[in-house]
Protein backbone atom coordinates (compact mmCIF):
# COMPACT_ATOMS: atom_id res chain seq x y z
CA UNK A 1 0.00 0.00 0.00
CA UNK A 2 2.81 2.37 0.88
CA UNK A 3 4.45 1.68 -2.49
CA UNK A 4 1.20 2.53 -4.29
CA UNK A 5 0.78 5.70 -2.24
CA UNK A 6 4.34 6.76 -3.04
CA UNK A 7 3.74 6.14 -6.74
CA UNK A 8 0.57 8.25 -6.61
CA UNK A 9 2.46 11.05 -4.86
CA UNK A 10 5.22 10.93 -7.46
CA UNK A 11 2.68 11.01 -10.32
CA UNK A 12 0.83 13.88 -8.67
CA UNK A 13 4.09 15.77 -8.24
CA UNK A 14 4.95 15.21 -11.92
CA UNK A 15 1.56 16.56 -12.96
CA UNK A 16 2.09 19.55 -10.70
CA UNK A 17 5.45 20.23 -12.39
CA UNK A 18 3.67 20.25 -15.76
CA UNK A 19 1.37 23.09 -14.70
CA UNK A 20 3.98 24.93 -12.61
CA UNK A 21 5.27 27.10 -15.51
CA UNK A 22 1.70 28.23 -16.24
CA UNK A 23 1.11 29.02 -12.57
CA UNK A 24 4.29 31.12 -12.57
CA UNK A 25 3.15 33.00 -15.69
CA UNK A 26 -0.27 33.67 -14.15
CA UNK A 27 1.38 34.90 -10.97
CA UNK A 28 3.76 37.18 -12.88
CA UNK A 29 1.27 38.73 -15.28
CA UNK A 30 -2.04 38.53 -13.35
CA UNK A 31 -1.24 38.90 -9.65
CA UNK A 32 2.14 40.60 -9.33
CA UNK A 33 0.93 43.72 -11.22
CA UNK A 34 -1.70 44.20 -8.50
CA UNK A 35 1.11 45.77 -6.48
CA UNK A 36 0.60 48.79 -8.74
CA UNK A 37 -2.70 49.50 -6.96
CA UNK A 38 -0.68 51.38 -4.32
CA UNK A 39 -0.38 54.23 -6.85
CA UNK A 40 -4.05 55.01 -6.21
CA UNK A 41 -3.26 55.99 -2.62
CA UNK A 42 -0.25 58.22 -3.32
CA UNK A 43 0.28 61.52 -5.08
CA UNK A 44 2.65 59.95 -7.58
CA UNK A 45 4.68 62.05 -10.00
CA UNK A 46 7.35 60.19 -11.99
CA UNK A 47 10.27 59.79 -11.73
CA UNK A 48 10.09 60.68 -8.03
CA UNK A 49 10.10 57.51 -5.84
CA UNK A 50 7.36 56.74 -3.33
CA UNK A 51 7.50 58.28 0.11
CA UNK A 52 5.07 58.29 3.02
CA UNK A 53 4.78 62.07 2.64
CA UNK A 54 2.95 61.49 -0.65
CA UNK A 55 0.30 59.24 0.89
CA UNK A 56 -3.14 60.78 0.26
CA UNK A 57 -5.51 57.94 1.19
CA UNK A 58 -8.79 58.00 -0.75
CA UNK A 59 -8.19 61.44 -2.25
CA UNK A 60 -8.16 60.24 -5.87
CA UNK A 61 -11.31 58.17 -5.42
CA UNK A 62 -13.10 61.31 -4.20
CA UNK A 63 -11.49 63.29 -7.01
CA UNK A 64 -13.28 61.12 -9.57
CA UNK A 65 -16.73 62.19 -8.36
CA UNK A 66 -16.23 65.65 -6.81
CA UNK A 67 -16.55 67.61 -10.07
CA UNK A 68 -19.75 67.64 -12.20
CA UNK A 69 -17.77 68.01 -15.45
CA UNK A 70 -15.59 65.05 -14.57
CA UNK A 71 -18.65 63.02 -13.55
CA UNK A 72 -20.34 63.80 -16.89
CA UNK A 73 -17.21 62.70 -18.71
CA UNK A 74 -17.12 59.40 -16.81
CA UNK A 75 -20.84 58.89 -17.49
CA UNK A 76 -20.16 59.32 -21.22
CA UNK A 77 -17.27 56.88 -21.04
CA UNK A 78 -19.41 54.34 -19.19
CA UNK A 79 -22.19 54.77 -21.74
CA UNK A 80 -19.73 53.94 -24.52
CA UNK A 81 -18.39 50.99 -22.52
CA UNK A 82 -21.84 49.57 -21.82
CA UNK A 83 -22.93 50.07 -25.44
CA UNK A 84 -19.88 48.26 -26.87
CA UNK A 85 -20.10 45.45 -24.32
CA UNK A 86 -23.87 45.06 -24.78
CA UNK A 87 -23.45 44.72 -28.54
CA UNK A 88 -20.76 42.07 -28.07
CA UNK A 89 -22.73 40.24 -25.39
CA UNK A 90 -26.00 40.40 -27.31
CA UNK A 91 -24.40 38.81 -30.38
CA UNK A 92 -22.29 36.24 -28.53
CA UNK A 93 -24.39 33.52 -30.21
CA UNK A 94 -22.94 34.36 -33.65
CA UNK A 95 -19.79 32.17 -33.28
CA UNK A 96 -21.98 29.24 -32.25
CA UNK A 97 -24.24 29.71 -35.28
CA UNK A 98 -21.23 30.12 -37.55
CA UNK A 99 -19.70 26.89 -36.20
CA UNK A 100 -22.97 25.01 -36.72
CA UNK A 101 -23.31 26.02 -40.37
CA UNK A 102 -19.59 25.56 -40.97
CA UNK A 103 -19.97 21.99 -39.74
CA UNK A 104 -22.74 21.45 -42.29
CA UNK A 105 -20.37 22.05 -45.23
CA UNK A 106 -19.74 18.58 -46.61
CA UNK A 107 -16.72 19.42 -48.78
CA UNK A 108 -13.83 19.08 -46.31
CA UNK A 109 -11.40 21.22 -48.32
CA UNK A 110 -13.88 24.06 -48.70
CA UNK A 111 -14.79 23.86 -44.98
CA UNK A 112 -11.13 24.05 -43.96
CA UNK A 113 -10.60 26.95 -46.37
CA UNK A 114 -13.51 28.91 -44.84
CA UNK A 115 -12.32 28.14 -41.31
CA UNK A 116 -8.77 29.25 -42.10
CA UNK A 117 -9.86 32.45 -43.84
CA UNK A 118 -12.16 33.44 -40.95
CA UNK A 119 -9.60 32.55 -38.27
CA UNK A 120 -6.61 34.41 -39.76
CA UNK A 121 -7.89 37.94 -38.91
CA UNK A 122 -7.55 37.08 -35.21
CA UNK A 123 -3.76 37.05 -35.67
CA UNK A 124 -3.69 40.48 -37.34
CA UNK A 125 -2.85 43.34 -34.99
CA UNK A 126 -5.31 46.20 -34.60
CA UNK A 127 -2.75 48.53 -36.16
CA UNK A 128 -2.90 46.50 -39.38
CA UNK A 129 -6.70 46.33 -39.15
CA UNK A 130 -6.81 50.13 -39.00
CA UNK A 131 -4.43 50.28 -41.95
CA UNK A 132 -6.87 48.15 -43.94
CA UNK A 133 -9.77 50.35 -42.83
CA UNK A 134 -7.83 53.49 -43.76
CA UNK A 135 -7.02 52.20 -47.24
CA UNK A 136 -10.67 51.37 -47.86
CA UNK A 137 -12.56 54.17 -46.10
CA UNK A 138 -10.36 57.30 -46.05
CA UNK A 139 -11.32 60.31 -48.18
CA UNK A 140 -9.25 59.09 -51.14
CA UNK A 141 -9.70 55.38 -50.43
CA UNK A 142 -11.28 52.61 -52.42
CA UNK A 143 -14.85 53.15 -51.18
CA UNK A 144 -14.97 56.89 -51.90
CA UNK A 145 -13.29 56.41 -55.27
CA UNK A 146 -15.83 53.72 -56.18
CA UNK A 147 -18.83 55.83 -55.13
CA UNK A 148 -17.50 58.88 -56.97
CA UNK A 149 -16.89 56.85 -60.15
CA UNK A 150 -20.54 55.77 -60.06
CA UNK A 151 -21.64 59.37 -59.60
CA UNK A 152 -23.37 58.61 -56.30
CA UNK A 153 -21.41 61.26 -54.39
CA UNK A 154 -19.58 64.45 -55.34
CA UNK A 155 -17.69 64.96 -52.08
CA UNK A 156 -15.85 62.18 -50.24
CA UNK A 157 -17.55 60.74 -47.16
CA UNK A 158 -15.41 60.83 -44.03
CA UNK A 159 -16.26 57.32 -42.85
CA UNK A 160 -13.52 57.09 -40.21
CA UNK A 161 -14.27 60.52 -38.75
CA UNK A 162 -18.00 59.98 -38.20
CA UNK A 163 -19.21 59.38 -34.66
CA UNK A 164 -22.89 58.66 -35.40
CA UNK A 165 -22.44 54.93 -36.02
CA UNK A 166 -19.09 54.34 -34.36
CA UNK A 167 -20.49 51.71 -31.94
CA UNK A 168 -21.84 49.66 -34.83
CA UNK A 169 -18.72 50.00 -36.99
CA UNK A 170 -16.44 49.02 -34.12
CA UNK A 171 -18.61 45.98 -33.42
CA UNK A 172 -18.42 45.00 -37.09
CA UNK A 173 -14.61 45.23 -37.09
CA UNK A 174 -14.43 43.21 -33.86
CA UNK A 175 -16.79 40.56 -35.24
CA UNK A 176 -14.81 40.31 -38.48
CA UNK A 177 -11.60 39.86 -36.51
CA UNK A 178 -12.79 37.37 -33.86
CA UNK A 179 -15.67 35.37 -35.38
CA UNK A 180 -13.61 32.48 -36.76
CA UNK A 181 -11.42 32.24 -33.69
CA UNK A 182 -14.40 32.30 -31.29
CA UNK A 183 -16.06 29.51 -33.30
CA UNK A 184 -13.20 27.07 -32.62
CA UNK A 185 -14.59 26.25 -29.16
CA UNK A 186 -17.96 25.34 -30.65
CA UNK A 187 -16.40 23.32 -33.47
CA UNK A 188 -14.59 21.26 -30.84
CA UNK A 189 -17.85 20.82 -28.92
CA UNK A 190 -19.65 19.68 -32.09
CA UNK A 191 -17.00 17.03 -32.72
CA UNK A 192 -17.76 15.54 -29.28
CA UNK A 193 -21.49 15.04 -29.98
CA UNK A 194 -22.41 11.35 -30.19
CA UNK A 195 -22.69 10.40 -33.88
CA UNK A 196 -25.35 7.80 -33.03
CA UNK A 197 -27.77 10.63 -32.21
CA UNK A 198 -27.36 11.97 -35.75
CA UNK A 199 -27.78 8.52 -37.26
CA UNK A 200 -30.95 7.88 -35.25
CA UNK A 201 -32.39 11.25 -36.34
CA UNK A 202 -31.65 10.50 -40.00
CA UNK A 203 -33.27 7.09 -39.72
CA UNK A 204 -36.37 8.79 -38.29
CA UNK A 205 -36.45 11.08 -41.34
CA UNK A 206 -35.26 14.30 -39.72
CA UNK A 207 -34.11 17.05 -42.06
CA UNK A 208 -30.77 18.84 -41.67
CA UNK A 209 -32.45 21.87 -40.07
CA UNK A 210 -34.37 19.64 -37.65
CA UNK A 211 -31.12 17.91 -36.68
CA UNK A 212 -29.45 21.29 -36.11
CA UNK A 213 -32.39 22.60 -34.08
CA UNK A 214 -32.98 19.48 -31.96
CA UNK A 215 -29.52 17.93 -31.57
CA UNK A 216 -26.61 20.22 -32.47
CA UNK A 217 -27.73 23.50 -30.87
CA UNK A 218 -29.02 21.90 -27.60
CA UNK A 219 -25.71 20.04 -27.30
CA UNK A 220 -23.81 23.34 -27.65
CA UNK A 221 -25.86 25.24 -25.06
CA UNK A 222 -23.69 24.27 -22.03
CA UNK A 223 -20.60 25.63 -23.82
CA UNK A 224 -22.52 28.73 -24.86
CA UNK A 225 -23.75 29.47 -21.33
CA UNK A 226 -20.29 29.04 -19.78
CA UNK A 227 -18.76 31.46 -22.31
CA UNK A 228 -21.72 33.84 -21.85
CA UNK A 229 -21.23 33.94 -18.08
CA UNK A 230 -17.51 34.60 -18.50
CA UNK A 231 -18.32 37.45 -20.90
CA UNK A 232 -20.70 38.92 -18.33
CA UNK A 233 -17.85 38.91 -15.82
CA UNK A 234 -15.70 40.75 -18.39
CA UNK A 235 -18.45 43.24 -19.22
CA UNK A 236 -16.29 46.30 -18.48
CA UNK A 237 -13.22 44.93 -20.28
CA UNK A 238 -13.50 46.14 -23.85
CA UNK A 239 -9.78 46.22 -24.45
CA UNK A 240 -7.94 49.34 -25.52
CA UNK A 241 -6.01 48.60 -28.72
CA UNK A 242 -8.98 48.63 -31.09
CA UNK A 243 -10.41 51.92 -29.86
CA UNK A 244 -7.00 53.52 -29.50
CA UNK A 245 -6.12 53.08 -33.18
CA UNK A 246 -9.59 54.11 -34.41
CA UNK A 247 -9.98 57.18 -32.19
CA UNK A 248 -9.59 60.69 -33.59
CA UNK A 249 -10.66 64.21 -32.70
CA UNK A 250 -14.05 63.74 -34.40
CA UNK A 251 -15.19 60.46 -32.81
CA UNK A 252 -13.36 60.56 -29.47
CA UNK A 253 -16.48 61.27 -27.41
CA UNK A 254 -18.31 58.25 -28.84
CA UNK A 255 -15.43 55.76 -29.03
CA UNK A 256 -13.68 56.33 -25.70
CA UNK A 257 -14.40 53.29 -23.54
CA UNK A 258 -13.22 52.83 -19.97
CA UNK A 259 -9.91 51.11 -20.81
CA UNK A 260 -9.04 53.81 -23.33
CA UNK A 261 -10.08 56.55 -20.90
CA UNK A 262 -7.78 55.14 -18.23
CA UNK A 263 -4.92 55.00 -20.73
CA UNK A 264 -5.52 58.57 -21.91
CA UNK A 265 -5.58 59.78 -18.31
CA UNK A 266 -2.23 58.16 -17.55
CA UNK A 267 -0.36 58.75 -20.80
CA UNK A 268 -2.12 61.90 -21.99
CA UNK A 269 -2.48 64.05 -18.89
CA UNK A 270 -0.07 62.24 -16.55
CA UNK A 271 -2.82 61.45 -14.00
CA UNK A 272 -1.33 58.10 -13.04
CA UNK A 273 -2.94 57.90 -9.62
CA UNK A 274 -6.42 58.71 -10.93
CA UNK A 275 -6.11 56.14 -13.71
CA UNK A 276 -5.06 53.46 -11.21
CA UNK A 277 -8.01 54.35 -8.96
CA UNK A 278 -10.39 53.93 -11.91
CA UNK A 279 -8.74 50.62 -12.83
CA UNK A 280 -9.20 49.40 -9.27
CA UNK A 281 -12.89 50.24 -9.33
CA UNK A 282 -13.24 48.51 -12.69
CA UNK A 283 -11.53 45.37 -11.40
CA UNK A 284 -13.74 45.27 -8.30
CA UNK A 285 -16.90 45.66 -10.40
CA UNK A 286 -15.67 42.94 -12.78
CA UNK A 287 -15.15 40.51 -9.88
CA UNK A 288 -18.64 41.30 -8.57
CA UNK A 289 -20.10 40.70 -12.04
CA UNK A 290 -18.20 37.41 -12.30
CA UNK A 291 -19.65 36.12 -9.02
CA UNK A 292 -23.10 37.37 -10.05
CA UNK A 293 -22.80 35.50 -13.35
CA UNK A 294 -21.65 32.39 -11.50
CA UNK A 295 -24.65 32.57 -9.16
CA UNK A 296 -26.98 33.11 -12.11
CA UNK A 297 -25.46 30.09 -13.86
CA UNK A 298 -25.98 27.97 -10.76
CA UNK A 299 -29.62 29.05 -10.42
CA UNK A 300 -30.46 28.63 -14.14
CA UNK A 301 -28.35 25.63 -15.15
CA UNK A 302 -27.72 24.07 -11.76
CA UNK A 303 -23.98 24.29 -12.40
CA UNK A 304 -21.37 26.89 -11.55
CA UNK A 305 -18.09 27.53 -13.33
CA UNK A 306 -16.12 28.77 -10.31
Structure in words:
It is a single chain. The protein has 306 residues and is mostly helical. Helices cover 70% and strands 0% of the residues. The chain has 14 helices and no strands. Helix 4 (94-103) crosses helix 8 and helix 10 (208-233) packs across helix 14 (272-301). The radius of gyration is 25 Å and the shape is globular.
Give the N-to-C terminal Cα separation: 35 Å
Question: Quick one: how many beta strands?
Answer: 0
Q: Mean pLDDT, as a whole number?
A: 86
Percent in strands: under 5%
Shape: globular
Cα radius of gyration in angstroms: 25 Å
> What is the percent of helical residues?
55-70%
Compute the number of helices: 14
Largest sheet: none
Poorly predicted spans = none
Instruction: List SSEs in N-to-C order.
Output: HHHHHHHHHHHHHH
Structural class: mainly alpha
Short description:
The protein is mostly helical. It has helices at 2-31, 59-65, 68-90, 94-103, 108-119, 126-137, 142-149, 166-191, 195-203, 208-233, 241-246, 252-255, 258-268, 272-301. Helix 13 (258-268) runs antiparallel to helix 14.
Annotation keywords:
mainly alpha; 306 residues; 70% helix; globular
List the helices and strands and how they pair.
Blueprint: H1 2-31, H2 59-65, H3 68-90, H4 94-103, H5 108-119, H6 126-137, H7 142-149, H8 166-191, H9 195-203, H10 208-233, H11 241-246, H12 252-255, H13 258-268, H14 272-301
Helix pairs in contact: 2-14, 3-8, 4-8, 5-8, 8-10, 10-14, 13-14
